[in-house]
Write a structure and sequence with these properties.
Largest sheet: 6 strands, mixed
Number of strands: 13
Shape: globular
Order of helices and strands: HEHEHEHEEEEHEHHEHEHEEHHHHHEH
Helix content: 25-40%
Strand content: 15-25%
Number of domains: 2
Number of helices: 15
Distance between the termini: 36 Å
CATH superfamily of the largest domain: Periplasmic binding protein-like II
Radius of gyration: 20 Å
Length: about 375
């Protein structure tokens, strides 16, 4: 089992704006129009594929196994964050990347900037393995330009042997019991920093309303004194050490703590949370689009996609893969048993364009000092 992957930053709107400027300078459009028709009989051995993914988010032998199965040589470039790969993809010209792994709102931003290919679904027959819910994600209904790789939600990761009561509300963090003050961490990444406050106030996590955002900011500023730290990467180590009692956490990352200490548990607060998705897109600049489609189809094979659930402990939106994993994984890591129906009850994160700057400003004001 690998250590946590740094998967998210929250400046998709700003990067989308720069992408739009790049595209305008190149005379491109702001929509994802189909390129020339793809050849279903293309010789894939003649197409050398480059993908960009988070380090540790795929099996080490992926390149060799893909080439053996499909015939196309595969090179994997690693990125540490969404922001890093988005910078490459929006810098202008050909990034050299054929398939990029990005979180859903970033895929939306790339599509809005006209940088990703409209998928030829006839070349991805394994799309039929997806849960129906995974084909209607708000940022891309119908999987027209993206295919989900992993999905989950955000909640409270906590030490059941240390908290005075099981947390059931975001207010257990925002207005904590005395026993938990100074023993909690929150996520610093912008959209997830604001999530607990927005949900506790009954607002959308995609709100752009200035008054709502200001109220959320006030709540977070008041809560700051009760936190030990803002921690996006090592919060489960703090929980294992007993340094903290509770942490705002992505579900998959909480599982790394659960694997080490059964007293660590995960709860989705009653006010609700988010539905995050990591997804695959084909770049419009790719000269290897048939191989790119074949790669996505390869990932969606149940055996290949099940690897993610078994080794990274993230849920995958592939019914056949999750069926193959079986109930044992959910018994050890209960949040792995969350159903698609459970997940889609949560609010999907979407790109809010230029209004992302509001989240950036608030996050800076809350976490600085």
């Amino acid at each position: 089992m690998r250590a946590g992957v740094i998967r998210r930053t929250a400046t998709a709107g700003a990067i989308a704006a720069s992408a739009a400027l790049v595209l305008a300078a190149c005379g491109g459009s702001s929509s994802s129009e189909s390129s020339a028709a793809l050849d279903p009989n293309a010789d894939l051995t003649k197409q050398a594929l480059t993908i960009s993914n988070w380090a540790g988010y795929y099996p080490e032998d992926l390149s060799a196994k893909f080439q053996e199965a499909v015939g196309a040589p595969l090179t994997i470039a690693n990125h540490a964050t969404n922001e890093e790969v988005m910078g490459k993809l929006t810098a202008g010209g050909d990034s050299g990347i054929d398939v990029a792994f990005v979180s859903g709102q970033y895929a939306q931003a790339l599509n809005d900037a006209g940088l990703v290919e409209t998928l030829d679904q006839s070349l991805i027959p394994n799309l039929s393995n997806l849960y129906p819910e995974a084909t209607q994600l708000p940022y891309d209904p119908g999987n027209t330009f993206s295919v989900p790789y992993a999905w989950g939600t955000t909640g409270i990761c906590y030490r059941s042997d240390l908290v005075p009561a099981e947390p059931t509300s975001w207010n257990d963090l925002l207005a904590p019991a005395d026993e938990n003050k100074g023993k909690m961490t929150a996520l610093a990444t912008e959209r997830w920093l604001l999530l607990p406050a927005l949900k506790s106030l009954g607002y959308s996590i995609n709100t752009t309303d200035d008054a709502e955002l200001e109220k959320a900011k006030e709540l977070l500023v008041a809560n700051k004194a009760d936190l030990l730290a803002y921690d996006d990467t090592t919060f489960y180590n703090r929980l294992m050490a007993g340094e903290t009692n509770m942490a705002v956490a992505w579900d998959g990352w909480c599982n790394y703590g659960i694997a080490e200490d059964p007293n660590i548990k995960f709860a989705v607060p009653s006010e609700g949370s988010d539905l995050w998705t990591d997804t695959m897109v084909v770049l419009k600049s790719s000269k290897n689009k048939e191989a790119a489609h074949a790669f996505i189809n390869y990932i969606l094979d149940p055996v290949n996609h099940a690897w993610v659930a078994e080794n990274i402990l993230y849920k995958v939106p592939n019914k056949a893969a999750m069926d193959a994993v079986g109930a044992d994984l959910a018994a050890a890591f209960p949040n792995m048993g969350m159903t698609p129906a459970d997940l889609v009850k949560q609010e999907a994160i979407i790109d809010v364009g230029e209004d992302n700057s509001k989240y950036t400003k608030i996050a800076t004001e809350v976490t600085s000092g």
